[in-house]
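debug: dumping io for the single-chain case to check the tokenizer round-trip. Nothing else runs in this session.
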Amino acid sequence: KVYCPYPRCSALMSKIEVLGNAANAFAGPQQVGARKCTKCHGLFCLNCKVPWHSNMTCYDYKKLNPYQCAEDAKLKSLATRKSWRQCVKCNHMVELAEGCYHIYCRCGYQFCYTCGAEWKNKKATCRCPIWDERNIIHNEHNQGRPY
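debug: decoded output
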């Protein structure tokens, strides 16, 4: 399924509907991926799911517009303030509450929480410390919570 990227429309279209309609595709190397919404007829990029970015590759568009909406920028700002990290493989946000800095993401990717370097064969590829005592020392009377 594909949603129209225009907020006033947001029509839900099947990929078959969007890809199968020959009149929907545009010829020429500059417009690969350009499609028309079946409801509002607005042009959009099938590859990046955003309004059509003419004369610009998807890569260039994403460099100039890293956030598709204001909420993305707000989340990134919150993540920076809270020192969250983002998995480079699946983009899942991770918060270290306790334990070592070796992160095993839900997608299976392993990385250093401090610098983001990949772990290979269960070993760090960076020189960052593996833990901070404040994250691993627990008080028996504190029911497993860090000091």
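debug: round-trip ok. The helical segments are 15-20, 58-64, 70-81, 133-136.
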